[in-house]
User: What shape does this take?
Amino acid sequence: MNVIASIEQININPQVLQTASNPYTGLYKAINELNHSLITNVRQLLTFVLAK
Assistant: This one.
């Protein structure tokens, strides 16, 4: 399960969102949410592939 741990490390630190200057906060949030859903999808895909 090292692959999944490595993928999780890619995730953007939530503190980056809070320190980001105002106009970009929404952008960082959107990127973080997209990043999180990508990680979730990849984890599900890996779980499915490894289960076979």
About this structure: The helical segments are 2-9, 14-19, 22-51. Residues 7 and 39 are 7 Å apart (CA to CA). The radius of gyration is 14 Å.
